Structures are given as C-alpha cells and as structure tokens.
C-alpha cells in the first residue's frame, strides 16, 4: 500500500513539475515577445518576433536537453549548454535548428551504437557518450556566434542562400552549415569507422598503420561516414528551406547546400584528423591493450604531443 502511494505521489510531483516548467516557459516566451514588440516600436526598423517563435525556441531546446539528460547523451552542464545553443539557433533560423537537431540526434545514436565494441578499444569510453558543457560549446560555440551575427545582420527568420540578395548573411548561413556538417562528419567517422572498418586505420600524416582509436587515424569507411554525415545535415537544411522560405523560385537554386554539407563534413573530418595526429598525444598501453591519451610508463608513443593535451579529463589515468 505504501509503495503504491509512493508511486502515485511520484507521478503527481512529476506532473506538477512539468506543469510548472510549461507555465514558466509560456511566461518567459511572452515576456521576450513583449520586449521584442517594444524594441521594434521604439526603433521602428526591427521586425517583431512572434510569440509562437519565442515559445518554440524555448520549449523545444528545453525538451531536447531534458531528453538528452535522461538518455545520458548529456550531463547536467551539457544539458544547460545545449539549451543555450539550441535557443539561439532556433530563434535565428529554422534551418539552423534542424541542422543542429540532425547533428544531435544522429551523433547521440551513433555514440551508443556498438558500445561494447568501442569500450574494448577506447580507454576513456563513457557509457552513453555523455557530453559536458565543454564538448557542447566545442561543437556549438561557433554556430551560436554565427547565429547571433546573423540575427544582428537580418534579424530572426528564414532566408534563401543567395549571394546576390544577402551577401553577408549568406556567408553566415554557409559558415554555420559548414561548422555543423564538420562536427557531424567527424562524429560519424569516429563512431562508425572503428567498428565497421575491416582494415586497420592509417595515420593521416604518415599513412602508417596504427591501432584503432588513435588520434589522427583514418579508414575508408570513416571517410565515407564523414561525407554521409555532412550530406545528412545538408539535406536537413535544404528540406527546411523548402518548407519555410518564401519565393524560393526567385532565388538561386538551393540544392547545392547538400553538396556543400557533404564536402564540409569530409574535409572538416580530415582536418580534425590532421590536428589530432599532430597536437593530441596517442599511445598504446600494453597493460590494458588500449590506446590512451596520456603518457605513462606502460604506454608506447604513437603520435602527437603531450604538452598540447594537459586537461584533467584527458590526462587522467585509464581505468
């Protein structure tokens, strides 16, 4: 009986918490809308943002961050960072939001995919691949800055990617798409390549065979995965353009966005591998049979420089 009452009370408190969060979200979105209306009236040149866009920009990132926290894709700091990044990108442009959403969902799924296999190769593998605030801002910091600059340039809203009509804003859109495609391509390569590749990875700087999990190691499967990851983000951006942008028939063709996303994913992943091979230490620890990212008596150097990687999260001894 007491157990049943405990379960009922638990569900009741959860329901009340959800209602409080929803009411707070509505209040915040309406407050921002009032501020937006006031600013547009005062300056006379700003287009006011609809209350529905405010609500969507707050509620959806909040829901995604909560979902990522429950599924252990994010820790608490990562959830807070993700909410901030999601809010800015969603407010700026729906195409930015769907690109970010594609990166987050696909990367989270692939990080958990074949976890048992990855755990055997990676000494620092986390169950669920929880991302903290630093990892969130490493992937979302540049897109967030670009989204803010975009809103300063043209205001919140969707627009065609067209250099003839909005030269500066178009560069911002492509830069943001490139950043997210790069992050997606790199994640896909690192999560898919070591698992599916039948040939050992090769160090991108010297082309020598290296153990799986080495920073800077690439495989044909990983390179294809990085290309497909970028294409996926490009497709998400392109479809959103078709759904939300008006008068696309008067603008430049939008389909090259998909090709651009794929190339950004591939080239960004390769650049990350070059930087990883040069700047991040990799060594093979014979005592555990895994590649590690910090020097030790049992680790044999493969590539990289320890002096570039001195943060506690990287140099903690493997368990």
From TrEMBL:
Main location as per UniProt: membrane
Entry protein name: Transmembrane protein 19
Organism: Anguilla anguilla (European freshwater eel)
Keyword set includes Metal-binding: no
InterPro entries according to UniProt: DUF92_TMEM19
Domain of life according to the entry: Eukaryota
GO cellular component: membrane
Transmembrane segments annotated in the record for this chain: 20-39, 81-105, 223-245, 257-279
Subcellular localization(s) per the UniProt record: Membrane
Keyword vocabulary terms for this entry: Membrane, Transmembrane, Transmembrane helix
Family as reported in the entry's similarity comment: Belongs to the TMEM19 family.
Entry keyword Chloroplast: no
Membrane topology reported for the UniProt record: Multi-pass membrane protein
């Amino acid at each position: 009986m007491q157990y049943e009452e405990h379960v009922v009370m638990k569900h009741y408190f959860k329901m009340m918490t959800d209602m409080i969060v929803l009411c707070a979200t509505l209040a915040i979105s309406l407050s921002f809308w009032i501020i937006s209306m006031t600013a547009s009236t005062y300056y006379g040149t700003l287009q006011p943002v609809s209350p529905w866009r405010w609500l969507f920009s707050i509620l959806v990132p909040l829901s995604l961050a909560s979902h990522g926290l429950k599924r252990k894709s994010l820790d608490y700091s990562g959830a807070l960072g993700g909410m901030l990044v999601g809010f800015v990108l969603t407010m700026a442009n729906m195409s930015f939001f769907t690109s970010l959403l594609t990166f987050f969902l696909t990367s989270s799924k692939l990080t958990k995919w074949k976890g048992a296999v990855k755990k055997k190769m990676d000494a620092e593998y986390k169950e669920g691949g929880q991302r903290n605030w630093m990892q969130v801002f490493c992937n979302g910091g540049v897109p967030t800055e670009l989204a803010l600059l975009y809103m300063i340039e043209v205001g919140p809203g969707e627009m065609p990617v067209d250099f003839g009509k909005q030269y500066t804003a178009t560069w911002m859109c492509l830069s943001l798409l490139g950043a997210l495609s790069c992050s997606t391509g790199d994640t896909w390569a690192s999560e898919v390549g070591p698992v599916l590749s039948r040939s050992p990875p090769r160090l991108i700087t010297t082309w020598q065979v290296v153990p799986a999990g080495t920073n800077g190691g690439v495989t044909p499967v990983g390179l294809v995965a990085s290309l497909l990851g970028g294409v996926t983000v490009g497709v998400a951006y392109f479809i959103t353009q078709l759904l939300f942008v008006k008068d696309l028939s008067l603008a430049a063709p939008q389909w090259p966005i998909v090709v651009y996303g794929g190339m950004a994913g591939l080239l960004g992943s390769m650049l990350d591998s070059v930087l990883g091979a040069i700047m991040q230490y990799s060594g093979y620890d014979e005592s555990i049979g895994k590649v590690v990212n910090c020097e030790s008596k049992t680790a044999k150097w493969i590539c990289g420089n320890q002096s570039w990687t001195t943060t506690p999260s990287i140099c903690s001894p493997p368990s």
